[in-house]
Design a protein that fits this description.
2 helices, 5-stranded antiparallel β-sheet, Nuclear Transport Factor 2, Chain: A
Length: about 130
């Protein structure tokens, strides 16, 4: 018979402790989608998105914005679309990543904003945003 173990062995290879991710409410995702839509439509300065988006996203939204503003000026469309965001459809492929889509409903048309959000341990930031 063997003697009972006096201590429990500690594994040599332990995984690093991940910081607790701050929760991201659906309302925050909806708000970010609405802000991105307003920025692309030309109704909000891109600078107001600030730290919520990465520099790559800023460049892409700026490109989308110039395209939409040019199209509206060609058609002389001065209407302002004021959409209401629907619930976000989200998935979490990794603990620090959220991929989601938000449908923005307006009386004349609907739009979709697709987002990829990543957390660096302290805050969430959009690393991909597409306004359709």
């Amino acid at each position: 018979m063997s003697a009972p173990a006096l201590h429990t062995p500690i594994p040599l290879h332990t995984s690093p402790v991940r910081p607790l991710m701050p929760p991201l409410a659906d309302a925050a995702i909806q708000r970010l989608a609405l802000l991105a839509f307003e920025a692309v439509e030309g109704h909000r300065p891109l600078a107001q998105l600030g730290r919520l988006i990465s520099p790559t996203v800023l460049t892409e939204l700026s490109r989308q914005r110039s395209s939409r503003v040019e199209r509206r000026s060609l058609y002389r469309d001065q209407r302002r679309v004021v959409p209401a965001p629907g619930p976000p459809h989200r998935s979490e492929p990794a603990p620090d990543v959220i991929e989601c889509a938000v449908v923005l409903n307006a009386p004349t048309r609907s739009s979709v904003v697709a987002l990829r959000l990543e957390c660096d341990g302290e805050r969430w930031q959009a690393t991909e945003v597409t306004v359709l």
